[in-house]
Write a structure and sequence with these properties.
By secondary structure, the protein is of the alpha+beta class. Helices cover 29% and strands 36% of the residues. The chain has a six-stranded mixed β-sheet. It has a six-stranded antiparallel β-barrel with strand order 13-14-19-17-16-20. The structure holds guanosine-5'-diphosphate (GDP).
């Protein structure tokens, strides 16, 4: 009878040899025979491992470890023995710029958050929960639509419902269309909020008709999509909108298990002074409790602090609750799934194997996940070059867009806020102005009056007939968004032997150069044992009464230090001297 061994979808050669209980050299030789040149630490995939077992004639059956998909829908069917409880809907609010998304979210929060609790809201939060008629709903400030879509591709359902905000006086615009496309692709329910109804002479029929042209059929207009007329300004219709959200959600019968280890998604993370990595998580199933160990991607945490997004401290959080936690060893990334594990040992092990496969398992990173990583980084980090693309025909438009997409890096990305076939028109200029975008025209005209408008509005319009040149231009613009590279070079180390005078912003002291040399003026950091105490500036060096520019290893000298705050320098502290060079970068 053959024995059964379970392995991951990829495994290092060394580990496989171990599991098969054969010398690693034997395995490597066998792989070489098949033309696979690998070293002991390299990974091979499951299929290759299986072939090896056969080639070696071993009585062993390999089984692929099922990677646990933390997915609400699958969890439901897998966990028949558990009882599901209703959970609040998770709602994303999307829409064209200036149509009142932010105002509407504020109106909802303002009318629903219990007074006194709201004080803690100081920074941008990407999700929060509100109460309406004794029920909860979770609202998400839309991150990039693409990020949502990418998450969806990975089986992670972040939203149950999308509210599309359309300003009654402006109608359906490119980002409205994008939001519709997103919601349809993601297969989530749509609800329309027709905003700014307080404006005199508002008539929502126009918007309803435009929506119909884009395949969103409103109730009374041949379809069943709910549209609510609202005004974020006067709060008209806001309660009704919340009623409708809950009603639409009820049809979906949203539920979750409570008696399973909690799991969910990382929706934001950042470093905070004094708190370390801070992560915002959305609980999707189970009950997340303070003190639990959780794994997210290649990092893990013992939950030290558990708070609601308004800063209120809690000890446990039920499904659909967005929470802020501290305790992570490293920053988790947006889109990472998290789950509770039994103890620190399992947490460390799971996080370790995830980081392992991240580093060596190149074969495992498919296009989708690298795309996701890019989007994730983009979400955290930042720089986007907003552009509008106009082209003569659909074919060239697609080519331009594809080539532009290929320029994206982890730090800077192109964000196409609108693209279409046709000449550059006034609307493009207005859109570029409000979205801070550059317009790229490919084989298209720029009528004189539009050119003048662009000039007056200070909108950049670039026209090209050669794709390559257009792309190079965009590349240059993107490079300008990159933070410059800072190159630090260590110069030398000095050990403090005496401290003569300390004020709030300066220290006069003396010491011995123990490595290389000390120079002035220079940047430096003070190190005690292994910890950095402070970043400082060395203003001058003295040998005897004389000011000198450098002092070599083995020599003693006096030094003047400029500090930002008062520092309690101590004998035997080390001063590391370094230089810093700023270099412009390009992609
Ligand atoms: P966002 O870009 O979609 O987040 O839009 P904002 O919430 O920033 O709103 C854009 C502009 O529209 C702001 O000047 C708001 O004051 C205004 N606005 C938003 N909602 C309403 C509304 O219901 N009525 C009126 N009259 N103005 C509104």
């Amino acid at each position: 009878m053959s024995s059964k061994i379970t392995i991951d979808s990829s495994i290092t050669v060394g580990m496989l040899a171990d599991k098969l209980m054969i010398p690693v050299t034997k395995l490597i030789t066998e792989l070489m025979k098949l033309g696979v040149m690998v070293t002991v630490n390299e990974r091979i995939d499951f299929e290759t491992a299986q072939i090896m077992v056969q080639e070696l004639g071993l009585e062993i059956e390999l089984e692929r470890k099922i990677e646990k998909e933390i997915n609400f829908k699958t969890a439901k069917t897998e966990l028949k023995d558990h009882i599901a409880f209703p959970r609040p809907p998770i709602v994303a609010v999307m829409g064209h710029v200036d149509h009142g998304k932010t105002s509407l979210l504020d109106a909802i929060r303002g009318s629903s958050v219990v007074k006194g609790e709201a004080g803690g809201i100081t920074q941008h939060i990407s999700a929060y929960q509100v109460q309406h008629n004794g029920r909860s709903l979770t609202l998400l400030d839309t991150p990039g639509h693409e990020a949502f879509a990418a998450l969806r591709e990975h089986g992670a359902q972040l939203t149950d419902l999308v509210v599309i905000v359309v300003a009654v006086d402006d109608g359906v615009k490119p980002q409205t269309v994008e939001a519709i496309r997103f919601a349809k692709k993601a297969g989530v329910k749509i609800l329309v909020a027709i905003n700014k109804m307080d404006k005199p002479g508002s008539d929502s029929n126009m918007v309803k008709q435009q929506l119909a042209e884009h395949g969103v059929l409103i109730e009374g207009w041949g379809g069943d999509v709910v549209a609510v007329e609202v005004s974020a300004k006067t709060k008209l219709g806001v309660d009704q909108l919340l009623d409708m959200i809950l009603l639409v959600a009820d049809v979906e019968e949203l539920d979750a298990y409570l008696d399973i280890p909690a799991y969910g998604l990382v929706i934001e993370s950042h470093m905070e002074k004094g708190r370390g990595p801070v992560a915002e998580l959305l609980v999707q199933g189970g009950i997340l409790k303070i003190g639990s160990f959780i794994v997210a991607g290649s990092t893990y945490a013992r939950i030290r602090n558990l708070e609601l997004t308004d800063g209120k401290k809690i000890t446990e959080a039920a499904p659909s609750t967005p929470v802020i936690i501290t305790g992570f060893k490293d920053l988790p990334t947006f889109g990472d799934k998290f789950e509770v594990v039994a103890d620190e040992k399992s947490a460390r092990m799971l996080a370790g194997s995830a980081s392992d496969s991240k580093q060596t398992g190149k074969t495992q990173i498919d296009m989708n996940s690298s795309e996701l990583i890019r989007l994730i980084n983009r979400n955290n980090a930042v720089s986007e070059l907003n552009i509008i693309v106009k082209a003569d025909v659909q074919g060239s438009l697609v080519s331009v867009l594809d080539s532009l997409k290929a320029l994206d890096t982890d730090e800077v990305a192109v964000r196409v806020i609108s693209s279409s076939v046709g000449i550059i028109n006034e609307n493009d200029i207005y859109l570029a102005q409000s979205g801070g975008a550059i317009i790229y025209g490919f084989n298209v005209e720029l009528p004189k009056n539009v050119q003048q408008l662009a000039h007056r509005s200070e909108v950049k319009v670039r026209q090209y007939n050669v794709i390559y040149e257009l792309i190079e231009d965009a590349r240059e613009e993107m490079s300008k968004l990159l933070p410059p590279e800072i190159i630090e070079t260590e110069v030398g180390i000095l050990k403090i032997k005496g401290i003569f005078k300390t004020t709030k912003n300066s220290i006069i002291c003396g010491g011995e150069v123990t490595k290389n040399k000390a120079i002035a003026p220079a940047m430096a950091r003070i190190i005690r044992n292994k910890d950095k105490i402070a970043d400082v500036e060395i203003t001058n060096l003295k040998r005897g009464p004389q000011d000198v520019k450098e002092v070599l290893e083995g020599e003693m000298c006096g030094l003047g230090i400029k500090t930002e705050n008062k520092i309690d320098l101590q004998i035997d502290d080390r001063i590391e001297f370094f230089t810093r060079e700023v270099r412009e970068r390009s992609i």
